[in-house]
């Protein structure tokens, strides 16, 4: 009887995962009388035992699991050390469970095997990070961010609570979380790569999440650490490249006709954003005078993230008021109103109108350009949080990108 491909793939996943974890444990088991009893062969057999038990049935899986636990405990008590730890024994049990999982979810089991092996192999780096690199304040920030995501966010209502129907508490809090997460990512990148490369990468990638949030996050960092102001400006301006790239992708998914109409303008805006970002980055790296060593205390500031949300909520209310005044059919008013919060949402709305024949592509292109500009107004307002020295070059760069986009839309 031929073996089904899914069954074969599950068995291969179990064997490969067992070998992967086993090889890592084999390298650490030591030698002599005090060596660990669990190595490459033990882990591989445990994974195969889990796979076979999963095929036989629930009773066999329970018996095999009990046997693996008993063997792991026996291996633990065999080691005569003051603090032998439980990592290897737990790894053996996890290898068994993943072997059982491989028979139904082979891809997931294979990915988890790799993650488990990576976790085991990264022992020294993880211990160094937890004991030497991670400060008490950073640990507190991590717990606050986790609570904001896992506790506060699910509890907030996912519906509008204002008469105009634009203030959604869950979505607004999500923006606060994004600001904190972007700040935390910049903090980690800064620690790992240094001011020049770390903040630049954080700013560019943060732009794909929200360029407005990235500019606000970098403003907070620039105000808190003035020595990093130039790097924060460069990171903020680099986030505009991601805005243009993501806008092109959104338009391509909604309306190819509108994308074709706007493609030259987006190319011009993208090149302008890249040029301005690179110039700001070179200025940050080539600044004269002594470089200051910045002592990073906190990964983010919760109060400043809440301030960003308050500004965003005000922009949403203003946009809704404009849309209400000009009417739902006013494509420019609607695009401008939506653009205050998110240019991509405005592009989706306008693109859908073009795709169903409810709007002309040329008119829609100007509407998207208007949304781009109103979104830039939000960015400029948010940049004020970093002080004049941060806001002036950041807002100036954003306005130059806007000007290039509008000129290209007008001329092409």
Question: What keyword list fits this structure?
Answer:
mainly alpha; 0% strand
Protein model, in words:
By secondary structure, the chain is mainly α. It is elongated and about 75 Å long. α2 (40-56) runs antiparallel to α3, α10 packs parallel to α16 and α15 runs antiparallel to α16. The protein has helices at 5-26, 40-56, 58-78, 87-102, 106-121, 123-133, 136-155, 169-193, 195-224, 229-254, 256-285, 302-326, 331-339, 343-355, 361-383, 388-411. It is built from 16 helices and no strands.
Helical content class: over 70%
Low-confidence stretches: 288-294
Distance between the termini: 66 Å
Tell me the strand percentage band: under 5%
User: What is the rounded Rg?
Assistant: 27 Å
Q: In total, how many beta strands? A: 0
Outline, from the CA principal axes? elongated
Biggest sheet layout: none
Rounded mean pLDDT score: 78
Helix segment tally: 16
Which class best fits the helix and strand makeup?
Answer: mainly alpha
Instruction: Write the element-wise H/E pattern from the N-terminal end onward.
Output: HHHHHHHHHHHHHHHH
């Amino acid at each position: 009887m031929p073996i089904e491909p899914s069954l074969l793939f599950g068995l291969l996943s179990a064997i490969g995962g067992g070998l992967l974890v086993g090889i890592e444990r084999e390298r650490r088991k030591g030698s002599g009388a005090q060596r660990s009893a669990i190595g490459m062969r033990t882990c591989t057999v445990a994974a195969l035992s889990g796979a076979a038990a999963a095929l036989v049935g629930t009773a066999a899986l329970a018996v095999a699991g009990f046997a693996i636990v008993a063997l792991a405990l026996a291996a633990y008590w065999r080691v005569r050390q003051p603090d032998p730890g439980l990592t290897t024994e737990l790894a053996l049990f996890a290898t068994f469970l993943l072997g059982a999982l491989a028979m139904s979810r082979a891809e997931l089991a294979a990915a988890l095997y790799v993650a488990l092996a990576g976790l085991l192999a990264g022992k020294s780096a993880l211990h160094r990070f937890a004991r030497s690199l991670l400060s008490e304040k950073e640990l507190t920030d991590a717990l606050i961010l986790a609570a904001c995501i896992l506790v506060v966010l699910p509890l907030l209502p996912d519906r509008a609570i204002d008469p105009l129907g634009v203030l959604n508490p869950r979505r607004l809090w999500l923006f606060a979380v994004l600001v904190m997460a972007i700040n935390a990512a910049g903090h980690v990148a800064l620690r790992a790569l240094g001011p020049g490369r770390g903040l630049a990468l954080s700013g560019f990638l943060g732009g794909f999440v929200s360029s407005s949030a990235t500019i606000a996050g970098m403003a907070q960092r620039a105000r808190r650490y003035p020595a990093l102001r130039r790097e924060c400006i460069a990171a903020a301006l680099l986030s505009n490249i991601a805005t243009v790239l993501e806008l092109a992708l959104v338009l391509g998914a909604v309306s190819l006709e509108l994308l074709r109409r706007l493609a030259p303008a987006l190319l011009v805006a993208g090149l302008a954003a890249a040029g301005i970002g690179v110039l700001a980055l070179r200025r940050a790296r080539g600044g004269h005078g002594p470089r200051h060593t910045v002592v990073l205390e906190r990964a983010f500031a919760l109060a400043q993230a809440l301030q960003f949300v308050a500004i965003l909520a005000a922009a949403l209310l203003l946009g809704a008021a404009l849309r209400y005044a000009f009417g739902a059919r006013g494509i420019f008013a609607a695009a401008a109103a939506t653009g205050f919060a998110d240019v991509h949402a405005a592009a989706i709305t306008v693109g859908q109108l073009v795709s169903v024949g409810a709007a002309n592509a040329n008119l829609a292109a100007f509407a998207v350009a208007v949304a781009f500009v109103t979104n830039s107004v939000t960015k400029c307002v948010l940049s004020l949080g970093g002080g004049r020295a941060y806001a002036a070059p950041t807002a100036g760069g954003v306005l130059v990108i806007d000007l290039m986009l509008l000129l290209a839309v007008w001329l092409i």
